[in-house]
Design goal:
The structure holds two protein chains of two kinds.
Chain A lengths: L1 H7 L9 H24 L5 E2 H28 L8 H4 L11 H12 L3 H9 L4 H28 L6 H9 L1 H30 L3 H24 L4 H24 L4 H4 L3 H17 L6 H26 L2 E2 L19 H8 L8 H6 L13 H25 L2 H8 L2 H4 L3 H10 L6 H10 L12 H15 L5 H39 L9 H24 L5 H29 L7 H23 L7 H13 L10 H41 L15
Antiparallel strand pairs in A: 1-2
Helix pairs in contact in A: 2-3, 3-7, 3-17, 5-17, 6-17, 7-17, 7-25, 7-26, 8-9, 8-25, 9-13, 9-23, 9-24, 9-25, 9-28, 10-11, 10-14, 10-23, 11-14, 11-23, 13-23, 13-24, 14-22, 14-23, 15-25, 15-26, 17-22, 20-21, 22-23, 23-24, 25-26, 25-28, 26-28, 27-28
Chain B lengths: L8 H17 L4 H11 L8 H13 L8
The chains are: A mainly alpha, B mainly alpha.
Chain lengths: 698, 69
């Protein structure tokens, strides 16, 4: 069928004259350079978002056509004649040679998550320029390169997972260390994403009701798919979408109702415990009932909303109100503490370079690749798309009045809890805003307050609502779009939480199984509950600590997550470097060594600053000392209300220190083990890589 | 089920869009399985739509899907 489809379509793709092609790419390069110049150099008055969008698209086109092609053809030695796993062992289920556009869609849906939407929003506190430049440079030279090379390496190894490949190419010690690292990253990821949802829903009956409704909707879809119309995912998702839109509308009614509204007006702490309970239940239930239908629904909504946002940005062409650079590049920013270098480069992880993608690129995608020639399009291309999503998130955040942005993202410890104190504090930073404007914005979006709604999601939602409501405007549309955007983010974050908890559970069972074999039995209810409980307790601990943190928790958890994610990227790139050397292609090793070195510098710097920095807003140990000393003197400092809580804060600091140290230890161990493998491989006169299929490619 | 694309570009286009949409959603493609099964394993038993769907779903989500951040 695929062949027929290809045949039917072979009339496209007429060969273009080389001169014409050169002219076109030359033109793209010129347009890109002009747009980038405007983005980088224009100061003073606000600039239009289209400059940023056009510059990004031009950069992506040029990078895809030239750099990606160079890496694929020269460094990797892509061989279109070589059989892929899908061709060598088709089983009609996992291993299926698939049309490249279909694989692209599959891969993009699997890598796109909440990360590229949140990181850029948080990074906007330094202005739109640093984030934009890092997203563009990062994706071209690090992120997309990583995704493509891991996809390539896994395709040459029957679609095996990253952990497996590291074990066979770098030894079992490296494999074991990487596994522990991946589990720790998973826990931090789940905690920070859950925290984003809690921050978005706290004290918001409209949002809470709407998001809560996704559970019965998903259950309904699950039953429908199981018993009524098996396999009709498309139609059931449409039904789900309609039900969701109805619940967004119903949420507004609930929020306005004096008896119902208090039921859904919840404290952050309550929400955190509800979420922990939800995560536990959702991941032990049969997958068809809740997890799978939820995943279909969230993917449906995610793709649709991203397309809608792109379309709306093109139609509205909004102006960016955030300056190119703010005074907070010096590290004194209220959203997160730390200077531009190294913290910007870990704040925007997904969108520029995300280690998590190496797990996806070594999962189901390589089993669907029908020719190595498609690897550049799928691996590099899908990551460029993700970077584009990140750019759109940045645009949405920068469309807001900077005063509103800072009111939403600064912790109450810095701006207080009234619109007057917030307006005064933020105006004193140089972003003029009045209390009336802050109240009016809250009223427009159908909320009681917008102060300290940290975590990125509400900011993005206001930005998206602002853009959408200029396309479809009308009475109350801003509030509808705001809660739609919150629903969209919360839905796929919760999907990550339940699916991720399940992944974590199996990782824990694998690890514990080596110590006590019965725990490995995935059919056993005891083992299931124990491992799930451990996983939930792990992320639940960090979630709770984040919820009670006076600085909002995002301040602590997001950098830890960024460090973890970039560390995983560094590990994947080290592995890729080892493979290049083993393939006897070491003259191209700079392709992976340069981004590896950059990621190592950024993450090790950021990691050690998070531990040792003298400023208690940045350094965990300094923070522990501050609270420890106060406690010793018998003082109680906010947010603690008792000496016992003071003690808990100190303990949290030490836990965070340990975690940061663990990440650094994991990556340093992998650097050492990788270097050893490289030295061994260099001594060999022939390729020593362990590929499957063909004899080792020269 | 729509007819095979044979020489109809419009049909082929439709098939392709449906296939891409399914891949984006992560929905199992029973039609593709049918084609593969008839051409490769015609002698072994064929899964029904419901069986195929249940099998695919547990394979995909059984160990939790490694969703990205």
């Amino acid at each position: 069928m695929q062949e027929l489809a290809k045949l039917a379509f072979s009339f496209r793709r007429r060969a273009m004259h080389p001169v014409v092609r050169k002219l076109i790419f030359g033109l793209v390069a010129v347009v890109g350079a002009v747009c980038l110049g405007v983005v980088a150099l224009r100061r003073g008055e606000s600039i239009n978002a289209m400059w940023l969008v056009a510059a990004s698209i031009a950069v992506f086109v040029i990078a895809f056509r030239f750099y990606a092609r160079y890496v694929a053809m020269n460094a990797l030695g892509i061989d279109p004649t070589r059989l892929t796993p899908a061709q060598r062992r088709p089983d009609g289920l996992d291993y299926v040679a698939t049309d490249r556009h279909v694989v692209f869609g599959h891969h993009f849906a699997a890598i796109a998550g909440a990360g590229p939407l949140i990181g850029p929003v948080l990074a906007a506190q330094m202005g739109y320029l640093p984030g934009t430049l890092w997203i563009l440079a990062g994706v071209v030279f690090a992120g997309a390169v990583q995704d493509m090379i891991i996809l390539f390496l896994s395709t040459r190894r029957d679609g095996r997972s990253l952990g497996d490949m590291i074990r066979s190419e770098l030894g079992s010690a490296a494999g074991g260390i990487a596994m522990v690292g991946i589990l720790a990253i998973m826990i931090v990821l789940l905690a920070v994403l859950a925290l984003v949802v809690v921050k978005a829903l706290a004290q918001s009956p409209w949002g809470t009701f709407t998001v809560a409704m996704t559970i019965p909707v998903a259950l309904l879809m699950g039953l429908y798919l199981r018993y009524l119309r098996p396999g009709r995912v498309g139609e059931v998702s449409l039904i789900g979408l309609v039900l969701l839109l109805v619940s967004v509308w119903l949420g507004g009614v609930v929020a306005a109702d004096p008896t119902w509204a208090p039921l859904f007006t919840l404290e952050a702490k309550t929400l955190a415990f509800l979420l922990i309970g939800y995560g536990f239940i959702a991941s032990v239930l049969p997958v068809w009932l809740l997890l799978a239908p939820r995943d279909y629904l969230s993917t449906f909504l995610k793709i649709g909303t991203v397309l809608l946002l792109a379309l709306a940005i093109f139609i509205v062409a909004p102006d960016l109100k955030m300056p190119a650079l703010t005074r907070f590049t010096d590290g004194s920013g209220p959203v997160w503490a730390g200077s531009l270098f190294p913290f910007l480069f870990i704040t925007i992880a997904c969108g520029a370079v995300s280690g998590f993608h190496s797990l996806v690129a070594s999962g189901t995608t390589p089993k669907m690749i029908s020719s190595e020639a498609d690897i550049r399009y799928v691996g590099y291309g899908a990551m460029l798309m993700e970077a584009f999503v990140a750019i759109m998130a940045l645009v949405a955040a920068c469309v807001l009045e900077p005063g509103v942005y800072f009111a939403m993202n600064s912790p109450s410890a810095l701006i207080g809890t009234s619109v007057e104190s917030a307006a005064q504090a933020i105006s004193s930073w140089g972003f003029v805003i009045t209390p009336e404007m802050l109240s009016a914005t809250a009223r427009d979006i159908g909320e009681t307050t917008i102060l300290s709604r940290t975590g990125g999601a509400p900011t993005l939602a206001v930005g998206m609502a602002e853009i959408f409501s200029r396309v479809i405007s009308g009475e109350g549309m801003l509030a509808f779009w705001y809660h739609y955007a919150i629903l969209f983010e919360a839905l796929f974050i919760l999907t990550t939480v339940d699916a991720g908890t399940r992944v974590g559970r199996f990782m824990i069972q694998d690890l514990l199984g080596t110590a006590y074999a019965p725990l490995r039995h995935t059919e056993s209810w005891t083992a299931n509950v124990v491992a799930t409980g451990l996983c939930v307790a792990g992320w639940g601990y960090f979630l709770y600590a984040g919820v009670v943190d006076p600085l909002g928790g995002i301040n602590t958890l997001w950098p830890l997550f960024g460090i973890a994610n970039q560390m995983l990227a560094a590990i994947a790139l080290i592995f890729a470097t080892v493979c290049l050397v083993k393939m006897k292609r070491e003259r191209f090793a700079w392709v992976t060594l340069v981004p590896t070195a950059w990621l190592l510098v950024c993450t090790l710097m950021a990691g050690s600053q998070k531990i040792f920095h003298a400023n208690p807003r940045i350094g965990f140990l300094a923070h522990a000392r501050l609270f420890g000393d106060a406690r010793a003197a018998g003082e109680v400092m906010a947010p603690a209300q008792s000496l016992e809580q003071m003690q808990r804060i100190v303990v949290n600091d030490y836990v965070n220190t340990t975690l940061a140290a663990l990440f650094m230890g994991v990556v340093l161990a992998l650097v050492l083990l990788g270097t050893r493998s490289i030295l061994v491989a260099r001594r060999s006169a022939v390729p020593t890589t362990r590929e499957v299929g063909h004899a080792v490619a020269a | 089920m729509p007819s095979r694309p044979e020489s109809w570009p419009v049909q082929a286009m439709r098939w392709r869009i449906v296939a891409i949409a399914r891949a984006l959603m992560g929905a199992p493609d029973y039609e593709r399985y049918l084609v593969h099964h008839t051409s490769h394993h015609a002698d072994s038993p064929l899964l029904s739509r419901a069986e195929f769907f249940a099998q695919r779903q547990s394979a995909r989500f059984g160990r939790g899907a490694s969703r990205c951040c």
